[in-house]
Write a structure and sequence with these properties.
About 40% of the residues lie in helices and about 20% in strands. With about 475 residues, it is of the alpha/beta class. α11 packs parallel to α12. The chain is elongated and about 75 Å long. The protein binds guanosine-5'-diphosphate. Guanosine-5'-diphosphate binds next to α8.
Length: about 475
């Protein structure tokens, strides 16, 4: 017993040191015996990395058994976070505010995502109410629904417990999530919500509210010309924004009343010039594009429609898709092409960049300015779609109806069913479909799901990540 406790502390300490400050934190709080340790163990067990520690909390049916703060790492759908089991409500009772301050709970982004776990059978008592009133203060005033607190009703494995769960609305912490930490019921849905909330808070705290548009393309496609057309004299006086690399420069730009950050890699040609080979220039341009793309939400991919596609174009286009960025393909130098040649160029783009099928191809001329506004409008629309959160209820109604019209296939003797769908608040739109069981999804089914989604919410110029999961 002594050895276990010592070992456990060591694990906790090294995890603290390794992960402190880098991964978002989920703090599980609740009354003694609400099931915090069981849930902690379930969450920490979901991690996929074999290298990491898998500390285990001590679980026993006696109230108040877990006294130490336990900390471990978890992962859900590729998103890593730390989990801390706060070790019982008794720690909160004396000086809850000072404890909150010590844990930096007041200060986002260090402020953890809090999960209040209540035993649905026991219901919410005075202790929970006190704790809930403290936790309500952690919610941002401007958006109480997006608060730093989630509420879960544990031990919902019996019917009467589920009844009791409805009383928990009175805690003022929003919808209680139904859970049985012991049997895993509801844990996938809870993890979906935890990760979505963490990602939303992260995006807010990193100032990702300003849309970032990168202008990328190989040398000579017309990036400088396009930026000059947009920025005019301004370009000469803008200050580089901190945090961008020397290969790319970002400047603030206002488009139809909305602030954008334009990331510009046009300077690369002049930096790398000086008798160097074209291939060398191309390599430098692809490297600069990689950085710019990683920083942006939407890539304006410039192509030279007069000259045609090259390997460097394909390389840059590949980077855009690889990083799941929205994309507007600008077929530049349209002033040198007739209608038939433009159509032929669009066809060659579709044929040689099939993976960018979500990106519209717009013909433009940086020289005359034709089509430039439309390209920026499309980029702005992509930015708006990236931020769009589809209401869970409407999403589920859509797929319930769609499955009636077109049932999913029968695989290994049983029909596949989508139990529910949810959108994660990820930087690029991600939809998770909870299935009745684990099965490989046929590409035609995946395409049908995407078409169905886009027929209601077009997500212009934006790739969608679709994940099909069965309960763990
Ligand atoms: P960058 O290397 O991508 O920044 O390309 P530049 O903007 O420097 O343009 C390369 C060359 O293409 C220059 O000679 C431009 O004048 C020319 N160019 C750029 N855009 C257009 C266009 O829309 N039409 C025509 N005809 N020429 C263009």
């Amino acid at each position: 017993m002594l050895l276990t406790r010592t070992k456990r502390r060591l694990c906790t300490a090294s995890l603290d040191a390794a992960a402190a400050g880098s991964l978002p934190l989920l703090a599980i709080v609740g009354a003694p015996n609400a099931g915090k340790s069981t849930l902690y163990n379930r969450l920490v067990r979901t991690e996929l990395s074999a290298r990491s520690f898998r500390p285990r909390a001590l679980v026993a049916p006696t109230a108040g058994t877990t006294r130490d703060r336990m900390e471990g790492e978890s992962e859900w759908l590729g998103y890593r976070f730390r989990v801390v089991d706060t070790g019982g409500i008794e720690h909160f009772q004396d000086k809850p505010v000072s404890l909150a301050a010590r844990s930096r709970w007041h200060a986002p982004p260090a402020c953890p995502q809090v999960l209040l776990l209540v035993d649905a059978k026991a219901g919410a008592g005075a202790a929970e109410e006190r704790l809930a009133s403290l936790l309500r203060r952690l919610r941002p005033v401007h958006d109480p629904s997006a608060g730093a607190v989630l509420l879960a009703a544990n031990k919902c494995d019996s019917r009467e417990a589920r009844h009791g769960m409805h009383e928990l609305w009175s805690l003022g912490l929003g919808e209680p999530r139904l859970l049985s930490a012991l049997h895993g019921v509801g844990s996938a849905e809870l993890l979906d919500d935890v990760v979505a909330a963490m990602q939303r808070r992260e995006a807010e705290s990193t100032g990702d509210a300003v849309g970032k548009v990168a202008v990328v393309g190989r040398p000579n496609v017309g990036k400088s010309s396009l930026l000059n057309a947009l920025l005019g004299q301004e370009r000469m006086v803008v200050n580089p924004v901190a945090g961008t690399t020397r290969d790319s420069v970002a400047c603030e730009y206002e488009w139809r009343g909305e602030k954008l950050l334009l990331i510009d890699t046009a300077g690369i040609r002049r930096q790398a010039a000086g008798g160097e080979e074209r291939e060398e220039l191309d390599r430098a341009a692809v490297a600069a594009a990689r950085v710019a793309i990683s920083q942006c939400h939407v890539a304006l991919l410039l192509l030279d429609a007069y000259q045609g596609l090259t390997r460097a174009d394909l390389a840059i286009a590949g980077l855009v898709t690889e990083q799941q960025k929205s994309c507007v393909i600008v077929a530049n130098k349209a002033d040198r092409l007739d209608a038939a040649a433009r159509r032929a160029f669009s066809d060659s783009v579709r044929e040689r960049m099939p993976w960018l099928d979500y990106a519209p191809v717009l013909h433009a001329s940086a020289l005359t300015g034709a089509g430039v506004d439309e390209a920026l409008d499309t980029a702005a629309s992509a930015l708006a779609w990236r931020r769009t959160k589809v209401p869970k209820r409407r999403l589920n109604e859509l797929f319930a109806r769609a499955q009636l019209l077109r049932p999913l296939p029968v695989v290994r003797g049983a029909r596949l069913k989508m139990q529910y769908a949810t959108q994660h608040a990820t930087e690029s739109p991600t939809f998770v479909f909870r299935m009745n069981r684990q099965a490989e999804m046929h590409p035609s089914v995946v395409r049908w799901v995407e078409r169905t989604l886009r027929s209601h919410w077009p997500f212009d110029a934006t790739p969608l990540r679709l994940v099909f999961k069965a309960d763990p």
